[in-house]
Amino acid sequence: MVRMPHTADEVERGQRLGATLRRARGQRSMLDVALDAGVSPETLRKIESGRVPAPAFPTIAAIASALGISLDALWGEVRADTAAPSEHLAS
């Protein structure tokens, strides 16, 4: 099956998601969060760097849970202007 290329909006949203997760991770190590979420550190690294524009929902749910943030708060951050990080995701 051939995958359609991601749109510019999807790529941008993936970058915002990755940046938001990185901020939420704070000083915790990538390995620690990945192990808590049950994903590989490489997967977390790719998501945080924005290289995965549309990660699977269960993966994002697991990472959010490991970081102690709700999916609602995460989605709100991804949709919002990320010029100023939100206080509720700050570590």
What level of helicity do the residues show?
Answer: 55-70%
The number of E-state strands comes to: 0
Order of helices and strands: HHHHH
Beta fraction: under 5%
Q: Sum up the overall morphology in one term.
A: globular
Uncertain stretches: none
Mean of pLDDT: 87
> What is the CA-atom radius of gyration, in angstroms?
13 Å
Query: Which structural class fits the helix and strand makeup?
Result: mainly alpha
Characterise this structure.
This protein has 91 residues and is an all-alpha fold. Helix content is 59%, strand content 0%. The chain has helices at 8-25, 30-37, 41-48, 57-67, 71-79. The radius of gyration is 13 Å and the shape is globular. The relative contact order is 0.20.
